[in-house]
Amino acid sequence: MSAAILTATASDLGRRIAARELTSVEVTRVFLGQIKRVDADVHAFLHVDAEGALAQAAAVDARLDAGEELGPLAGVPLALKDLFCQEGVPTTAGSQILAGWRPPYSATVTQRLLDAGIVILGKTNLDEFAMGSSTENSAFGATHNPWDLDRIPGGSGGGSSAALAAFEAPLAIGTDTGGSIRQPASVTGTVGVKPTYGGTSRYGVIAMASSLDQPGPCARTVLDAALLHAVIAGHDPMDSTSIDAPVPPVVDAARSGDVRGLRVGVVRELSGEGYAPGVEQRFGEAVALLAQAGAEIVEVSCPHFGYALGAYYLIMPSEVSSNLARYDAMRYGLRAGDDGTRSAEEVMNLTRGEGFGDEVKRRVIIGTYALSSGYYDAYYGSAQKVRRLIASDFDAAFEQVDVLVSPSTPTTAFRLGERTADPLAMYASDLCTIPSNMAGNASGSFPCGLAPEDGLPVGFQVMAPPLADDRVYRVGAALERALGGGVLTDRIAERWTAGAAPDGSAPDDTARDRAEEA
Amino acid sequence: MDDLLTYDAVLARFDPVLGLEVHVELNTASKMFCGCDNTPGGEPNTTTCPVCLGLPGSLPVVNAHAVESAIRIGLALNCQVAPWCRFARKNYFYPDMTKDFQTSQYDEPICFDGWVDVEVEGETFRIEIERVHMEEDAGKLSHVGGGTGRIVGAEYSLVDYNRAGTPLMEIVTRPVRGLGAKAPAVGRAYMAMLRDLMRALGVSDARMEAGNMRCDANVSLMPTGTAELGTRTETKNVNSLRSVEAALTYEMRRQGAILAEGGRVVQETRHWHEDGEYTSPGRNKEQAEDYRYFPEPDLVPIAPDPAWVEELRASLPELPARRRARLQEAWGFSDLEMRDVLGNEGSLDLIEATVAAGAPPAAARKWWLGELARRANEAGVELGAVGVTPEQVAQVQGLVDAGTVNDKLARSVFDGVLAGEGSPEEVVASRGLAVVSDDGALGEAVDAAIAANPDVADKIRAGKVQAAGALIGAVMKQMKGKADAARVRELLLERLS
Q: How does this polypeptide assemble, per the annotation (chain B) (predicted)?
């Protein structure tokens, strides 16, 4: 019973809860039990809000018992990246500088989840302020990849992707600035979508780089991701960059999966040197499957994609340097060295020195430099020009094709510690994902099998024009069906759910809270 | 204390150049980027929210009404309105800044390239406006325990973020040259003009003493006959019109003394001390702070619809300069008379209201600038707060015109009105102030005066009509001022011709 709940899809759980075959409380208890059982090994969560989750679940049950009609995911538990404010619940962004902070308000996405009756189990681990590709930059310890605990779960949203792969939650939320949803999805064999920039609200999401950040859904199946996308997307007057347009028909697209006649462009520049053979092999097979399903495959060139990573590492840190200025010890979070002898400026310096990790400092310093007078035009200014060229590459490509495809990341999950000493190698993880952030279009990563050489998941990226998010799901659903053999993560289901208590026994009330212990 | 050159000596050798940066707090209902109440004051940190507190994750949304106010200000200052502009972030760390950057505008202001004329002693000066841009105010720091209220020596500091996020307009002039001795007065007149303009537009209370309108006064001196600008200083904390003039004068004299001795003026921010009437150095700007401006990525660009801008232009209220010209013409005041009016704070509105209540313009001006200005001055209050309404002034004048009271009695009427004895008519009745024009009573007094002053009577009989004044005075004295002087004169001349 319990294992069946853990491995069920979110849409199935939602249907059974709505039909009152299951209660939300019972489902929530099963997942809280799983977290308690496995998270010591995985470390997907920074904070488990057992009490809050059970209260939310009970409220949903009461509404359903009263005959209220709720959405398709009502009562289904979810893991929330610890970058989203949730009123009263610790929110750290993976940083010591915010340890212990409880926001007095909720992000729009958080609120929409709660309004839809989705139960928030807790907050998941991430690289500090979402800066990284492995979660190793978290101030509270790395997350482990459920496919191989010695390997990274991707980043920055590794907590969310690992929680899905270890069956600790059927749904998760991430944010994607340069690939933080798609690369973790790729290396954990799960689904992750970065909506069109402006498609989901950033209000209440702790900012890394404002012009690039975008919240999005994470799940084990394409339909589950689409259902979640539909819950969180749509115009928000609290976010000026939010698009005031109808949400693209993502759920219909995920249910359809019909790619007949769809023109699919394979990006020439996102292959070759640096790409693992198993990645290229599985990617090629997936393209062939789409062709078999009726898609028209062409090769497309995007000549400026090669400059995307360099431009990204100027624009992103520039915005970071400004967005992270507010962590100054004056109003909330860590305050270091305030012993009554020091000036406000000294306390600011000491706090930022102590509270930020190395990668955050590196980006703040790079960004400060790039925006400095005398350097602005050469760095920030040039990078913005490159950004426009990347967008024009997409525009030209989308005149020929309906979607673009590539591997989601050049390699499968690397080992923990393998790239921590080499930031440039770490940055290369986002080579394929960054162009979509620079242009603001929709993009998702879908499982396309295991690399023969290491047996680890390979991700297939689908990129669509702004506001054509439904095409991403259409192709993802087509691929999911064509691959056969069921959902990829089912291959490790036995390992992670064997031994789950048959009654889904509840965790005790002292839910672990690593962020606060730390 | 600084060495100062005399003002005349400064002007003998140098030409002053002004530059004024004025911040105006808008009186919009909500703040610049959030829905918080924009009413100033209140219990500290009560009109705040995640956005104006800069909490992690919060995002700004532009107040459309503030944009409208900015455009209207720009139009009133004859500016171009940008078809497309953006906000920018000005990055610096300070505890009154919730985000440690100020959301402002940098190289893309909403309005630019304007001008406005100000008048000083009959001479008109054109001030060119470089830009009008939108930004947000910071919180308010108070330093506790140091005695002086300043940060040096304070035990601790408190921050009130109620003001954080208040919409601010920054209005910047181009360097203003060719003002000569009138430079400080032009600075003051410009501020008064802006204040009146803000009030006419209804966009700000524009009270300098309340900090609604703040002036950073830049001035430099260049040797007469040269064209190269000198080094300027920027004086802050100039909180009244009078201080603008005084601070500019002080800086001209201080810089003049330095330059006269071959010294070098330091480019810096200076602080105006209202009490001692001097400036002292503030932050040294020689090493300009690098604010790392870049376009605000959390806000979309502003592209005002040209049709909307034209609507705003068409619906601008009558602006102060135009209104003054119209009223001067309608009232038939000479330039000198009008200058007196404009030199008396608030008198223009009061005269206009008095005329509207039925008084002739000249009479309205006479009362407000004479008798009532004197009383306001004695009481140490603004003219508008003197305690007499324009309607009452018009009523008093009506009594004068009807011959019920003369000017002298009218002053007593004002006494009664101010003492709360009721309307002017009621005061006249209760105090028995009406002039006596009854020939019986007057005739007796006239006869008595002639009898008491036979010499004067003889002179008048001999044709020296101007001597009648002495006898009229005697009658008035006898009648305790309540005689109708014109009728007394007639009766006198009847009897003595």
A: Heterotrimer of A, B and C subunits.
